Each structure stands twice: as structure tokens, then as C-alpha cells.
Known about the structure:
This protein is an alpha+beta fold and 1083 residues long. The chain has nine domains: 27-116, Immunoglobulin-like; 120-212, Immunoglobulins (Immunoglobulin-like, Sandwich), CATH 2.60.40; 213-306, Sandwich (Immunoglobulin-like), CATH 2.60.40.10; 314-401, Immunoglobulins (Immunoglobulin-like, Sandwich); 405-497, Immunoglobulin-like (Sandwich); 501-590, Immunoglobulins (Immunoglobulin-like); 598-688, Immunoglobulin-like, CATH 2.60.40.10; 786-883, 2-Layer Sandwich (Phosphorylase Kinase, domain 1), CATH 3.30.200; and more. It is built from 14 helices and 79 strands. A hairpin with a 2-residue loop joins strand 39 and strand 40 (390-401). Mean pLDDT is 86; it is low at 1-23, 692-701, 735-788 and 904-910.
Amino acid sequence: xxxxxxxxxxxxxxxxxxxxxxxxxxxxxxxxxxxxxxxxxxxxxxxxxxxxxxxxxxxxxxxxxxxxxxxxxxxxxxxxxxxxxxxxxxxxxxxxxxxxxxxxxxxxxxxxxxxxxxxxxxxxxxxxxxxxxxxxxxxxxxxxxxxxxxxxxxxxxxxxxxxxxxxxxxxxxxxxxxxxxxxxxxxxxxxxxxxxxxxxxxxxxxxxxxxxxxxxxxxxxxxxxxxxxxxxxxxxxxxxxxxxxxxxxxxxxxxxxxxxxxxxxxxxxxxxxxxxxxxxxxxxxxxxxxxxxxxxxxxxxxxxxxxxxxxxxxxxxxxxxxxxxxxxxxxxxxxxxxxxxxxxxxxxxxxxxxxxxxxxxxxxxxxxxxxxxxxxxxxxxxxxxxxxxxxxxxxxxxxxxxxxxxxxxxxxxxxxxxxxxxxxxxxxxxxxxxxxxxxxxxxxxxxxxxxxxxxxxxxxxxxxxxxxxxxxxxxxxxxxxxxxxxxxxxxxxxxxxxxxxxxxxxxxxxxxxxxxxxxxxxxxxxxxxxxxxxxxxxxxxxxxxxxxxxxxxxxxxxxxxxxxxxxxxxxxxxxxxxxxxxxxxxxxxxxxxxxxxxxxxxxxxxxxxxxxxxxxxxxxxxxxxxxxxxxxxxxxxxxxxxxxxxxxxxxxxxxxxxxxxxxxxxxxxxxxxxxxxxxxxxxxxxxxxxxxxxxxxxxxxxxxxxxxxxxxxxxxxxxxxxxxxxxxxxxxxxxxxxxxxxxxxxxxxxxxxxxxxxxxxxxxxxxxxxxxxxxxxxxxxxxxxxxxxxxxxxxxxxxxxxxxxxxxxxxxxxxxxxxxxxxxxxxxxxxxxxxxxxxxxxxxxxxxxxxxxxxxxxxxxxxxxxxxxxxxxxxxxxxxxxxxxxxxxxxxxxxxxxxxxxxxxxxxxxxxxxxxxxxxxxxxxxxxxxxxxxxxxxxxxxxxxxxxxxxxxxxxxxxxxxxxxxxxxxxxxxxxxxxxxxxxxxxxxxxxxxxxxxxxxxxxxxxxxxxxxxxxxxxxxxxxxxxxxxxxxxxxxxxxxxxxxxxxxxxxxxxxxxxxxxxxxxxxxxxxxxxxxxxxxxx
Length: 1083
């Protein structure tokens, strides 16, 4: 037996076994285990955990104990999120715990170790030996230590007066210590240290001054001290020497400094720096010089730094909220943590607020509210960070809520259909947004705002515009106050008095001549109406008498055998005791297209000769005739091929490329009819198709001149060969004509054997090959099996019309088409679809991608993934038919919301309004749901972007894959290693390792989120493709978010676009987070 057959058999068995096992609700295994990780203190960490059964619930343990979640450390989906890692609270061993829905089965992962790297932010230089400064003397050794703590081990660098000290015989470094041997006046100065590890870099705040005294050199008395100054201020450094002749100041290597608009040097040695800015930050050195001294000048330096304070925002206070409100239930407890911004010097954090806006007690930036009450805690609260550079603040309002009380429930109401109904619910509660009042009819919660109903969350009013009969029923209001149970009112009955109306309203009718047909007229109202038909006669009067073949039966006109005289205006009248209504419709009599002349099939033609393909049709109105070749409309060479006024197709000179299927379509308002014929072109030996160059009179003399200049004899040889070939061709033509006259052929020459020379077009299944590229009996069997699988999606290409080119993709052109026969209620009604053609059917890669898309869209059935409608395989090219929406692709929609949008007319106003945050988040959630469905079916999309997402007029989105990489969106693709890639939407592993997976789709989904919140801008708009490629390879790509992007979307985006695939979220966890966001937005 073939080894490959055995391998296929066992692989299929294992796959089926895995599927049946995975379908068991109680089976479970970990697909992704939490990995031991290192995180820098203050940074974020995600521990990923993925299981095989989505029904299981997840929790985590820390050091063997159940983990209690907080706003800083919590479970998202199945993953554990740690924000602002703390070495005291977060180090340890973490395990993921999965529990079955019934609680009977629990699986625990192997523990993962979390290590927090940190470094102490206060560093000082200490004297180790001798044990006091007084014991330091020339000729002896001095040992200094850089006092710093951190994990992992800290590396220390040493500096004297701003110059780094290298390890020499004079300066010996070991660990955190510096050993200076045999000190002398050359070693005097200010010693600093810099501590470095993976957690950061910290400069010493407390430095050591080494100053040996003596009479032979200048002796420092006042050492300049480091200063932090506000921009624009004038800080002063003090410096005094004794036993000196000259005192000078230097800024880095510039100096000596003299009095100017920037500096003032006083006689007492002090230095003032005027109007400080960033250019004046750095090292300032005070140099004391003694004339005729054998020792070098003495130098002592100080550092000048600018004070700064970063701004604060809503994320500076945890837990974070999108709303400016914090809603607390009465008697509840809450803790708010203010995170100090970066600043120099380190800012101090305080809390202000409450009913009287006073300073509030806090510890380590934390504000604690116990036993919340309206009188003591309601009000505005601010976290204030202050330092020398000024102050920054972030704040929120606290609303304290009590249980709501319904003071006046909604009352019963009776209204006429078509009028306006208002239901009111009056409550006593905390104000909106702490309290929201929603409405419910029966078991259905009504939308907040629609064209029909409007629910006012704040005042509890429900407005129903243009009341319909279906609006009748019981309504209740639901009062939801944060922190308390929902209170529901007693029901109020809405009665609707139905008005007289047509249901549905009759419209124009086209009747087929000679057919039996009906014209319906239906109406309804509070009282059953009487329905009658009448006809407007030639005098403009109404007539209720009809010919014998027309009968009015309870409002339905029965026409038995439609005649031309039945054409005209008809009036349907419905009346009851309350009202009378009528509608006038136009009735037209038509005849469907019918072919009177059908082209022969097949038709054979000579190469180089002319041919006429006849086609004619009749109908009422007279049908139009259109020709297509291989299902492509107007795909003709107009210089040779002409459609005549009688509908026939005339080819003046047949070329080999004209061979194919030709379709003649006749259409009028009643419908379309189509016939096809196959044109077979017989080759004529020696025939050369005419081209524009053949008609250029200058080409022959130029060719002759060149030829004659080379060799006159060669020209004679060419003429001889031409004459011989011409005579041979003429002889063969005479033979063919003689055979034709004798009845040997009907239209042009045939193969001597009588066999049809045309070969069947290669179908999709015929291209299926074994892995080694050979056609085998097994592959033929597989082809037959695959063919039967595809047959259920077969769609007749004759039901396609009005093809409009969208662009070109990886394996062919992409069209918008109108398809008939999809709606059983009206088979002639058309639906707009997207058709992807397989033109490169000989290319195995293109064929594989075409089949992959068929499998994806046929097997993933989800509301937010486009559906596959069918496949056209009855000719070339093959078409993949996909669902399309009324608003097209999301990319164009987003661009239309931009202020700088230019339409085709050059107008600058946006076509549509900008999306609200809620609408944008809803779109992101719907896209995530669609991609989650794709990933659950084990498919990979590979090109998630706004251009491949469709949007409907109700702002719902569907994942699609138009893939217009060749022209329409060519600028959004990049050719790399002979592959066309959506570079800006792909992670490192997809571009450089060709590893596409669900994780790469998650990265692309993060890019799609970015597009939605940046109104269709493509990622990294300021970089060229080459720069994006380079920075992606070095993993230095940095995302810039617009100011309108919410913080929670920024955080989610960072988790999706992580450079390491295992650190990215799953689509299930993305959906969970977005649903939580939607709940918060709605509440």
C-alpha cells in the first residue's frame, strides 16, 4: 500500500478522534500555559492561559492561595493582568485554574514564576575607609561605596567632576566600591556614582567631596552644590577658595565664563546663570588656581538640571473610569490611588475635595472613603501633584446614591395609530448618570434612541413616534441606580386604535401577455374594510365593470389570459364606517424576451477570415442585445469586432485569441434571456495578424537600409524564402476551398480525423495534485470527492449581470455583480454580491489561496463574517461569490468621516458624521466577534484591515477579504521576498519568518482598531515602507494614538500588538474585555 495513503488514513483518524474528544463538555486540556516572566517594577504584565474548552471558567492562585482580584491585578477572560507591578505584592508563583461549568472538574496548570526587577531611586556615595573625612590625608588610600539596592545586581559607574573614571592602578573598582590609591591634590573633586540594571538608571543624589588641604595649592572652602531650577529663572552657584590667585568657572569644556547676558561671575566666586533653558543644563566647574604652584588647578563641579512636571490625566487615578463620575452606594467603602506623574524634583501628591473642598488625609497617594454618605462625601475630588515646576491635577466627581423609589408609575394610555404616545415614570433617586431609567415592552428592552422610540434615561420619559398597531401592549419602566437593585414599575397598557390602511400598498404591475395573473389589494383597520377595484376608462371616469376575463374577488383582480387592452390605470378603494382610502396603480402589458435567431453552436472559423455570429430577439418593449466573451462584458477588440444594429456580432479578421464562449443576452423590463455558442478558431499556416506597425510606411525602408548595409545576399535569400512560403500558403488555401466546395467541411477546415480540436477548460478540481505534484489515481478520487463537496455551492453564471470592476487581487479581478434567484419570494429580484475571479488558474499558489477562501467563508457561519453565496465553476474564469453590504468597505466609510475628505467633485465636507466612542467600540467588538468565530474554526485570515471589512447602513460590520492588492489598495501592500504583504498590518513573525497564525491576526486586529479610531489613516503614516520594515525588524516600531482614542482602547491595542506572539491576547479575551467596556459605557 502507498505510504502516503497510510499516512492520510491515520491522520484522519487522529483528527476525528481529537474532534470527538474536544466536543465533550467535560474534557479539557491547556493549550497555552502561563510562562515564567520578568517584569520591571511599575510596568504591566500579562500571564496568558488558554484552554481547549471555552465553557470552562478560569481563576488564578498566587503562591498556592486563591488570588483576590483588584483594580491593579485581575483576571481578563482566562489571562491574568498585573498593572504597575510591585515587588512586595506581585512576586511569586502563579497557577491558572480551569473549572467546568458544573464545578465537578478542576484543572490546575504548572506554576509560573513572576520576578520583579527593581532599583532604589535614592543613591548616595559613602566613605568606607578611612572611617571619617578628618582622617583623609595625602599619600593614603581612600575607599568609597555607592549605596544602592536593586534586583538584579546593580552595575556601578564612577565619575569625578563629571568625568568617568576608568579602572587603572590608581582607581580600582570592585562591585559597588571605588578604591583610590595614594591620594594627592590631583584626586580632589566631587565623586558621583551611577547605578544601572534592567530596571533603570539612577544618579546619586548625595555625592562625596574629596578635598586635601595644603599650602601649595588652592584650597576649596565652599563647594558648589547641585541645583534644580525652573525654566527662565536665575539660579546661583556659590564657590569659595583660599590660598588662590585666580578663580574661574567652566560650563562643560567652555570657559572661563565671563560676565554676559547669560552669566554673571561675582568677585566672591559665585556664578549666576540667567534665563535658564535646556541649553544651559549640565556640569558647571569651579576652578581655583594658585600661581607658581607645582600642583594642578583644583576643580569642583556641580550639576544644573531643569525642573519639570508631566501632565496628569484620567489614567492618573485608579481604578480608571471613562466617565468623570465615581458613583458610590450609601455605606459603601472605596479606595482611590493617585499615581504621581514623572517630575524633577520628585512631586508631592495631596488630595483635595469633598463637600467643602478641603485638604484630605491620604497615605502614599491613596484616598480612602469609608461608610459613604451624601452629606459627607458627595462632591468634586482632585489629586494634586506639586514640585518646583508647578502643579498638575486630575479629578472626578463622587455621587452617593440611595435606593430609588418610584413615585408615579406609568399610566394606561389609548392613542390613535400614526400619532405620538408619551409614557412617564417619575422616581425619587440620585440624578443621572447614577440613575438610568429604561423601558421594557413585554420581555423586550426598548432601544435608547431610534427613529421610532426614544427613551430618556434622565427623566424617565418614553416617546413613541408615529405609533403603529404593533406597539400595543404592556410597558414597564426599570430604574437602575448604581449600587442598588433594579426597581421595576407596575405595567401600563398601551391601547392603539388601528387606522384604515393598505397592507401592503399596491404598486405598478407588469403583466405577461397571454398569462393568467392576479393583482392583490389588501387593507386593514379597526373595522374590517370592504375592498373594490375600478378602472379609469378613456374618458377619465371610474368603471367597476370589467371584461369577462377579469374578475374582482374580495379585493383581488383575477385576469385569465392577459390581453393588450388590459393596459391602463386601476383604482383600489378600501372603506369602512370610519374612513375610505384609495390608490391608483399603472398596469402595463409586456412580453418577455424571446430569441427569433439563435447562434449556431459550435461555430468554426478560419484564422484571418471574417465571420458573422447571428442573434435576434423580440419582446415588448423591444429587448436590447448585449454580447459577452467568456462571461466578460464588452471584452472585444473594437478595431476588429463590431455589434451590428440587428444584434449580430461581426468579426472582420479572426485571430487565435478570439476562441472562447460567446454569450448573447436579450433583456427588457420583464427579464433577461441568454444563449451561448462556442467559437473554434482553426489555425492557418503562415498567417500573421495585422498590427499598427504593419501600416507604418517608414518601417520597410528603414529595415531594408539596415539589411542591405549588412549583406545584399542575405536580402535576396529572404525574398526567396518569402516567395516560397507565399506560394505554399496559396496552394493550401486552394485545397481547403476545394474541399469546402465538395462538402468536406461546413464552415472552415476540420481536423483530418474528424475529432473536435477544442479541449475542455481545466476546472478547479482538475488542478488538485498530490504533494509531489504528480497526478495519481488517489488524487483523481480525491478530486471527485472534493467536486461533490463543491457542487452544493454551484451557482449558474447566467444569473449574474451588470458586473462592475472593483479592482484586482492575488488571483484575479474582483467585481460587484447583480445576482438573480437568491430570493424565493421573487426569483427575478437581484442581489448585489462580490465576485472574486480565478484568472491565474495555472498558478498553484493562487489556486491554493482561492480554495482557502472558499473553505473559510463556507465553513464560518457568523453574523459578523460575510457569507459565501456560491461558486461559478461552469466555465472560465471561476467565481467565488460573497455577501456584500449597502455601504461597502469600512476603509472608505472611515475616510468619509474626516474633515479633509475630498469626494470626486473636490468637495471638502465629510459625507458622514464622525463616529462616537460608543459606535467605534461597537464596531471593534463586532469585528472581534467575527475574527473569534474564524479562529474557533481554526482558520487564519492573514489580511485583517479596514479595507477587508464591510459596513452596513446600520453601522454593523462584517469580516470580508476583497484583497484588492494590485491597484485599488496597492499602496497598502509591499513586495518583500517575492510576496505581496500588508506590511503595516503584520507582526515580525509573519513578515520575516512567514509564520501566520491566530496571533498574527490578533496583531492585525490591533491595527484595525487603530484605523477605526484614526478615521481610516494607515498605520505609521509618517514612515516609508522601507522605514517600517527596518523598524519592525529591529522591534523599534512605536504607535502614536490620536487624542480621541480612549485609554482602555490604547491599553487593549498594546496587548494586541505586543512584539512577542505569546504576550498577545486571544480573540476570546478581547471580546470579553470589549463587552465589559460596552457594559460600562451603557451604564
